[in-house]
Amino acid sequence: MSHGPIDERLRSLALSTRGFMPEAEGDALHAAALEAAPHADGPFVEIGSYCGRSTVWLGAAARTTGRTLFAVDHHFGSEENQPGWEWHEPDLVDPRTGRMDTLPRLRATLVDAGLTDVVVTVVGDSPTVARAWSTPIAFLFIDGGHGVEPARRDYEMWTPLVAPGGTLAIHDVFPDPADGGRPPYEEIYLPALASGSFEDVSVTGSLRVLRRR
Ligand code: SAH
Ligand code: MG
Fold first, then answer.
1. Are strands 137-142 and 44-47 parallel, antiparallel or unpaired?
2. What pLDDT score does 1 carry?
3. Ligand 1 centroid to residue 124 C-alpha, Å
4. Which are the contacts of 132, defined by CB distance < 8 A and separation ≥ 6?
5. Which residue is catalytic, options 74, 75, 146, 171?
6. Which of 13, 39, 63 is nearest to 138 (CA)?
7. How far does residue 40's CA lie from ligand 2's centre (Å)?
8. Neighbours of 12 (CB within 10 A)
9. 187 φ, ψ (degrees, to nearest 5)
């Protein structure tokens, strides 16, 4: 199946949405999801949506390929998004609860993108959602908590749910510690390869795409 690049309007919207997905990697994520679809049935799942930046690229690919994207996030932010950490954005704190809350931003992004019929927002803790999940996944994108424990749990609980022929995409994979945090590399990417169940498909910046054998 060959499809062109993402619709220009959606691409501009993704680029104007807050978050942590660089332009080239968002385009690569979109392309990887288009390429993944013919290899496996089932939905797309994103772990870690934040305000919906990556969700627009993935949701556009879901629309093109007739899939549903489940966007999983508790919307309380990762450890690295909390006050005092490098990736904190103070205006995303709900003044009433004092906690981060990116859910209103995600919803606004999906409405602006016209993707509310394609993207199902799942508000919850990633391992809790995984425990109740049984549908084989055609495309799994992991971009949730980047600490050792969150990354390890996302690997252990979600990757077995990728369908045979399905695709696993991992964000913020930095083999060189000088470039960024290690857990997505050490707790997700390396174990996936070492398991023998996944093989490399492509690398774009910190985005790694693997396919399940
Ligand atoms: N993909 C986004 C960035 C995601 S940031 C983009 O393109 O901009 C990481 C997200 O993972 C945060 O929104 C945080 O709330 C979420 N997250 C971290 N740990 C989680 C957990 N245990 N369960 C659900 N979501 C989690
Ligand atoms: Mg990321």
1. parallel
2. 47
3. 10
4. none
5. 146
6. 39
7. 24
8. 12
9. -100, -10
Residues 6+ apart with CB under 8 A from 212: 40, 162, 163, 164, 165, 166, 167, 168, 197, 198
Q: Does residue 171 have an active-site annotation?
A: no
| pLDDT value for 177 | 95
Residue type at 80 in one-letter notation: E
- Whether 22 lines ligand 1, by a CB cut-off of 6 Å, is no
What is the mean pLDDT for each group of 10 consecutive residues in the chain (213 residues)?
80 98 98 97 98 98 98 95 88 93 98 98 98 98 97 98 98 96 97 98 98 97
Instruction: Flag whether the pTM goes above 0.90.
Output: yes
Q: Which residues have C-beta under 5 Å from ligand 2, the single-atom ion?
A: 20, 143, 171-172
- Are 175 and 162 contacting, i.e. CB atoms less than 8 angstroms apart? no
Integer angstrom CA distances of residue 80 from 38, 126, 177, 186: 36, 16, 16, 18
Q: What is the rounded distance in angstroms from the CA atom of residue 181 to the CA atom of residue 175?
A: 9
Name the residue among 126, 16, 31 with its Cα closest to residue 70.
126
- Which residue's alpha carbon is at the smallest distance from atom 1 of ligand 1? 49
Find the helix or strand (DSSP H, E) in which 193 lies: helix 190-194
Classify 179 as helix, strand or coil.
coil
Amino acid at 140: L
* DSSP assignment string, 73-121: E-SS--GGGSTTSTT--GGGB-TTTSSB--HHHHHHHHHHHT-TTTEEE
